[in-house]
Design goal:
heterotrimer, A alpha+beta (528), B mainly alpha (262), C mainly alpha (285), B: 262 residues, mainly alpha, MetI-like fold
């Protein structure tokens, strides 16, 4: 009896027509206004009715609950015309009053909605409802990509926030068992239909199992318990490719980057000579030149990654710039560069001008096999220059404490997830005053002329709606980053998915939420 | 020629073989043959290569020496500590026993994970892999004794009340002296504890890698190689991932045979 | 009267242990690196709300004494405080999980002891070292829990109870085999065997009683080992038990949950001590 029991307590029996896949941890909230983590954001994407939706495949804004929308030429007035006959999942009517209430709720400081900051000055935004179908939003200043902000604002019944239980989106939250699963039920009153007039969504429901174990996930996927694997680790990609060749998809480079950087913060507790190394452009460029990125992609990702030299991936067609000149692999040039700034070899050990051995550690987070492999490969690559590198994996809280609070680290290898193709979304990483300016957080004034120039270019692109000018400014930032190597970009991991052969309608994209962006049109083929 | 003799020779042979492999092989434990990761057996790599193209045989041999040294020492220290605390508590005054067991119980319930994190944050990040390994085994030894000490205390208390001990005390032997005769009787608790702790420490060392402790790259960690077994994606690629666990079992069985007659 | 005094003594001891454990774990968790950091700080989208939550936490737990009294106050109010990661009362989190973990523990310990006793009775009667029995036990000790779980997944059968009981059985077997082997060689047993007394009767009437006190010593060890294995087994098999909760609480530095879990640990450990103390006292009486 004990021997025969199933492998684990999870994988609750599947309801008819239900799609199932996993999420890594419990969503912190189901209140769509308060979403501040990735899994909550997924639940919001699947349940929320929004005025506009950013189409993850075409990368264009589409009207959703709004029939049409319009942005005034000064970029400060948005007018939404709602569709007629809209209903919430409980059958009650959805009018402009509900839309205005939901937008105002997001803007209220008391709500603490993370989306509010995307309005830049949420306090000055006004929302009006001239009639039942029209919503007018006035902004105190132009906001780049304002349309996309409405992709994140769920329209809820006025005065009755329901934590996803009553929505105007394709699904509603039906059941939640902490650390087991979230169950979503089809919204019978959802207004969208397919070309043949069939009501969407096709699926009767969605079950999101909370499971952070790729081994089990791959296993249960093979058994047909899960229909989808989002963000498949490369080794399991290869495993599934052997077992179910038709189920795996490699979409090529994702928008995400893996990078390494040196701690350049002048307030860090590092000894002065180490700061001097890390703040030296030639030192960073030499390190960058010594790293064999092709090996990283081939070995650490089993070929499912693409060498990276900039923060904008080739998957980001609108913003990618192939004209950037970045330092490529060239160990001889790296050695010459180090020699030119006083580094020299004593035996096999590199020393700086004052005779101190170049020894530092690379931090990374525990539990990410690919990163640990990359760090070990880099350790070997840098040993060729005579640098002694130790690799230390820490659990996330301890790692973040060093990166964000004590700044007690020398170098770090981590990834950055980009959800939005527009580089303006990364502005907080590039502005030198930002706490997320990782290599030297929260600078009072830019520490170097090139950081000041990045600030200028980023602010410039944020202040204009002229797309050509914005592109020029972002290209400029890319070139400065390539010249200075504050972030040493390593690879763009490929977007890897597994799709059950029974699943119909899948059109994977590299943008989050990957495979399920068109959730309304996904369905399981009936078993024969 | 008894089993124990045979086991002794085989164990020595195993260790010698590991040394010979390290001396003879043209590969070093850290050298990455990047053209052939996860390769099968070849002339150059008799046991294939790992995920980064490093020679598996050399790494296994090195890890065998390194991790065995660490784990056996740690295991011996922790078993000795358990024996010391347990018997002292049982043969000493009742209040000492009470206090020692109180400490044991508190020790067993505390979340030591966080102490390990503190140890890591107190060490400089550039601590060399070898030092980090030594510190890890030291910490494991320091944290491993209370459960066993409790069992030893229980067993020793039984002995103390056994007839021969009562007789000995009646005959004028001080409790410190009885303790010396009691120890052999506790071997049936201590020896298995010693043997069990070895693989437990080997694996624990690898698990501590997640906290930044343990044997750092590029030094080979035996536990780290054992943990590869949980990745079924790796298991289908090469059979040589089973080599470390096979060696560990062999070594444990030989140790078992070696101490069988004690 | 003696009974009441004894109970009172035990109760004081338990209270002292719980108190020490609470203080000790508060200090450990609070001063471990990463108490005031959150992985979302790295993500510009979520950084602001993560920082807001952290500043609340830092106001709450900056000084250790008020923090301790707040935590103890949580228990006095009857909800054991509010979980930092889930923002719900700790008791609501733990109570539904206790049954799951309790049943997992009981079933695996029972199965492990049955397995270990049977195996060691058979093995100790044979020649030494009996490879037939030592080999599987050693194998189980040398394979990491996660690898065992993977094997279960690959085989498509076996669950947390199986893995946990095998884990425990292998350990218990190593002790029992040795203890029994010694017992078989006891003079009175040798004598009894020469008299032709049946093996089952020997085991029942001589062996089991004579090793009872050693078995009770083993019980503590076994329960403590089971407690230690709980978190990894539950995490790997995704069992919604206390061990899984404790693991995620450790990763999220969720002090209220961790305190309650360590308190439960302390109770379980003292309870294990009580079990192993009992038979010895009966014997003395």
């Amino acid at each position: 009896m004990i021997l025969a029991q199933p492998c684990a307590g999870q994988a609750a029996p599947r309801a008819a027509g239900e799609l199932a896949w996993t999420i890594g941890y419990d969503p912190k909230t189901f209140d769509p206004a308060k979403v501040d983590d990735q899994e909550s954001e997924l639940v919001r994407y699947l349940t929320a009715g929004v005025l506009l939706r950013f189409n993850r495949s075409t990368q264009k804004i589409e009207p959703k609950l709004a029939e049409s929308w319009n942005l005034s030429s000064d970029g400060r007035t948005l007018t939404f015309q709602l569709r007629s006959g809209l209903q919430f999942s409980d059958g009650s009517a959805l009018t402009s009053r509900d839309a205005a209430w939901s937008i105002r709720r997001v803007l209220l400081p008391a709500t603490g909605a993370p989306v509010a900051q995307e309005f830049l000055s949420p306090g000055g935004v006004t929302v009006e409802t001239p009639d039942d179908q029209t919503v007018v939003v006035r902004l105190p200043q132009r906001v780049i990509g304002i349309g996309k902000v409405f992709d994140e604002i769920a329209i809820e019944p006025a005065g009755h926030p329901s934590e996803g239980r009553i929505t105007a989106g394709p699904f509603v939250v039906a059941d939640y068992r902490r650390s087991q699963y979230v169950r979503l039920r089809r919204n019978a009153h959802y207004q969208e239909r397919d070309a043949a007039g069939t009501a969407l969504p096709y699926a009767a429901g969605v079950r999101l199992d909370i499971l952070d174990n790729p081994e089990q996930e791959a296993r249960l996927f093979q058994r047909g318990e899960y229909d989808i694997i989002n963000g498949l680790p490369p080794d399991y990609f290869e495993l599934l490719k052997r077992r179910l060749p038709s189920s795996v998809r490699d979409l090529g480079p994702s928008l995400n980057t893996e990078q390494m950087w040196f701690n350049q913060a002048s307030s860090s507790p590092l000894p002065a000579w180490e700061k001097t190394w890390f703040q030296n452009r030639d030192f960073r460029v030499a390190v960058s030149q010594a790293i064999h990125r092709a090996d990283l992609a081939r070995i650490a990702y089993e070929g499912h990654a693409t060498p990276a030299y900039s923060f904008i991936s080739p998957a980001n067609r609108a913003w990618y710039d192939s004209g950037i000149s970045a330092p490529h692999e060239d160990v001889a040039a790296a050695e010459a560069k180090l020699a030119s700034v006083g580094f020299h070899l004593r035996g096999s050990i590199l020393e700086d001008a004052s005779g101190r051995a170049v020894r530092f550690s690379i931090l990374t987070n525990a539990g990410n096999a690919a990163r640990l492999k990359m760090a070990t490969l880099i350790q070997q690559d840098l040993a060729a220059l005579g640098m002694q590198v130790t690799v230390v994996a820490l659990d996330f809280p301890a790692l973040i404490e060093r990166l964000m609070h004590t700044q007690d680290y020398q170098a770090c290898l981590l990834g950055l997830e980009n959800v939005d193709p527009d580089p303006n979304a990364m502005i907080n990483i590039w502005l030198s005053s930002s706490p997320n300016h990782q290599w030297s957080p929260s600078e009072k004034t830019p520490a170097t002329p090139w950081e000041a120039e990045i600030d200028r270019a980023m602010n410039q692109q944020a202040g204009t709606s002229n797309e050509a000018q914005r592109k020029l400014a972002v290209d400029r930032v890319q070139q400065i980053v390539a010249d200075q190597q504050p972030f040493i970009y390593l690879v763009y991991p490929n977007a890897l998915y597994a799709v059950s052969p029974r699943l119909r309608g899948a059109q994977p994209t590299v943008l989050e939420p990957g495979l399920v962006w068109n959730i309304e049109r996904l369905r399981l083929q009936e078993a024969r | 020629m008894t089993f124990a003799h045979l086991a002794r020779w085989l164990l020595t042979g195993l260790v010698l073989f590991a040394f010979v492999v390290l001396l003879v092989s043209r590969n070093s434990y850290s050298n990455q043959d990047r053209e052939s990761p996860l390769a099968g057996a070849s002339v150059l790599h008799p046991a294939g290569t790992d995920a980064l193209g490093r020679d598996r045989l050399v790494r296994a041999a090195f890890a065998l020496l390194l991790s065995t040294g660490g784990a056996v020492t740690a295991s011996a220290v922790t078993t000795a500590a358990a024996a010391g605390v347990g018997t002292l508590a049982a043969f000493g005054p009742a209040s000492v026993g009470w206090l020692a067991m109180l400490v044991c119980d508190v020790f067993l319930a505390l979340p030591w994970l966080f102490l390990l994190m503190m140890v890591r944050s107190a060490l400089p990040l550039t601590t060399s892999p070898a030092n980090s390994a030594a510190i890890t085994f030291l910490v494991l030894a320091a944290l491993g004794w209370p459960a066993c000490a409790r069992a030893v205390y229980r067993g020793a208390l039984g002995l103390r009340k056994a007839e021969w001990a009562l007789q000995a005390r009646a005959g004028g032997l001080r409790s410190g002296q009885t303790f010396r005769y009691a120890l052999p009787n506790l071997l049936s608790l201590l020896l298995p504890q010693f043997l069990i702790s070895i693989p437990a420490f080997v694996i624990a060392e690898a698990n501590l890698g997640a906290l930044g402790l343990g044997i750092g790259e590029p030094l080979p960690s035996w536990g780290g190689m054992l943990l590869e077994l949980d990745n079924s994606a790796l298991l289908v690629q090469t059979r040589w991932v089973y080599l470390p666990v096979a060696l560990l079992i062999l070594m444990l069985l030989l140790l078992e045979a070696l101490v069988a007659e004690v | 009267m003696k009974l009441v005094g004894d109970l009172l003594k035990r109760f004081t001891r338990m209270l002292a242990i719980v108190l020490l454990v609470v203080i000790g774990s508060t200090v450990l968790v609070r001063f471990a690196p990463g108490y005031f950091s959150d992985v979302r700080e790295m993500d510009p989208r979520y950084a602001r709300s993560a920082r807001a939550e952290l500043s609340v936490e830092s106001a709450r737990s900056n000084a250790i004494i008020p923090l301790l009294s707040a935590e103890v106050g949580g228990w006095l109010r009857g909800n054991a405080g509010i979980s930092r990661q889930y923002d719900v009362p700790v008791l609501d989190l733990i109570l539904p999980r206790l049954a799951v973990t309790g049943s997992l523990m009981l079933r695996s310990i029972a199965l492990a002891w049955t397995l270990a006793l049977c195996a060691s009775l058979l093995s100790s009667a044979g020649p030494h070292p009996s490879l037939l029995w030592q080999m599987p036990a050693t194998l189980l000790l040398a394979i990491p829990t996660a690898a065992m779980a993977t094997m279960c997944l690959l085989a498509g059968s076996g669950g947390p109870v199986l893995v946990m009981s095998l884990l425990l059985a292998a350990r218990d077997f190593k002790f029992l085999d040795r203890i029994l082997r010694k017992t078989w060689l006891d003079p009175h047993l040798l004598y009894a065997r020469t008299q032709g007394i049946g093996v089952t009767r020997l085991i029942r009437a001589h062996i089991l009683p004579s090793i009872a006190s050693q078995l009770s010593a083993l019980a503590t060890l076994s329960i403590v080992t089971a407690l230690g294995a709980l978190a990894p087994v539950e995490v790997i098999f995704n069992v919604p038990g206390v061990g899984q909760l404790a693991w995620s609480a450790a990763l999220n530095r969720d002090l209220p949950v961790l305190l309650t879990v360590t308190m439960l640990m302390a109770l379980a450990v003292t309870f294990a001590g009580v079990i192993s103390d009992r038979p010895a006292e009966w014997k003395n009486a």
